[in-house]
Amino acid sequence: MTWSVGAGLEGRGILVTGAAGGIGRAVCEAFAATGARVMAVDVDVARAAEVAASLEGTGHGSAGADLRDPGGHDALVARAREELGDLYVLANLAAVMRRRPSLDEVTEDDWDAQHDINLKAAFFLARSAGRVMAEAGRGGRIILFSSQGWWTGGFGGSVAYAASKGGVTSLCRGLARTFGPHGITVNCVSPGQVNTPMLTDGLPDGVYEEMRRQTPLGYVAEPADLAGPVVFLASDHARYITGATLNVSGGFLMY
Asked: At the top level of CATH, which class does the domain 13-248 belong to?
């Protein structure tokens, strides 16, 4: 094993969804720095292309996709494999949160939107990627994104979001058992508060500062703080870790 941060990732094909978001972009940049080839995928086609064009190295690509339609997942995975020459890692960061002030204000559409992209799409896309990795016979890495909400359960209007992320955590474990015999690891990253629009948009006054105060490390994470754990889970250093949920919350939660 080469003892570099991204051991085993040089020249590998990496598919990153939610690539135009703050964390997604940081993850794409971190993978590119290892010498991997990255396909940046986002529902915003123009922003995905901009991310790909900004990455260091060569061989990167981009694609626009609405992951709520599982019918397009096989084609997306096949495209990534063809354009990158390999598909070794799926890092699925695509997610949506609809913040509501109270439980009574959560609509059926709120529930469906969050579960369709956060949980349903995670299952079908991971299944598509895992199938291709298993057929290739060279192992692989599937990295899903949960949330601190899977542990806390959320509260008020965030319960539906937390439920979808709890599903992702459970899904990770089942997929790890299924794909393990093929040398494919499946793990979750569970962020605490991260300074992105998903956290800050519509956040009541004073809440951000209270989050910072309650975090033992003393600050709300920046997107780059999540990129390192993702690269670690994709690298050879994590080859004996599967079915795990990695808590990246600055100590806000401890488990």
From this structure: alpha beta
